[in-house]
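Protocol step 4 of 5: obtain the predicted structure for the target chain.
Materials: sequence only (see below). No template structures provided, no constraints applied. The aim of this step is simply to have a reference model before the mutagenesis design in step 5. Sequence pasted as it appears in the construct record:
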Amino acid sequence: MTTERDRMLRGDPYDPRDPALVAQRARARRLLAAYNASESATPERERLLRELIPNAGPGAWLEPPFWCDYGDNITLGENFYCNFDCVILDVAPVVIGRNVLLGPGVHVYAATHPLSASARRTGLELGATVSIGDDVWIGGGAIVSPGVRIGARAVIGAGSVVTRDVPPDVVAAGNPCHVIRALDDGAINA
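Step 4 output (structure tokens):
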């Protein structure tokens, strides 16, 4: 039998009021409250992170406060860093590569709603996988929309709204986010 969670993770319309999903979100909220209140660089904080996001690679660091829907739909590569006040809505998989940096207040949304008002009235929701490649830097206050793929080594400017895929090795910024130029990997700050 297909569950609402199965539908959610596939990107099919699902009912977020499903008791199993409500319980999973409540579990995440309890873990987030403890994580956000924990002291920095302690075994307890590391334990809470691993319980909330079991697919977090070694060296993953999330500055509190941090917020997510479920946690277990997030994959973080090694040496991931997330600054204060980040949000990851993980109703679909959110896959983030190695050595990725998120500035303060970055929001990553895998969650969305139907475009049709009549479909929205049903209460059903949708999700679309977000993928962020290795060595990406996303500046503070940026928003990554559902279904977006950001290529390896890309830099996303602060405050950008990323509504379309971003290729690797570029600087992209704006609302909507667009490619500004190619990156020279040897440059320090060009």
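Step 4 remarks: The mean pLDDT is 96. The first strand starts at residue 55 and ends at 56.
Proceed to step 5.
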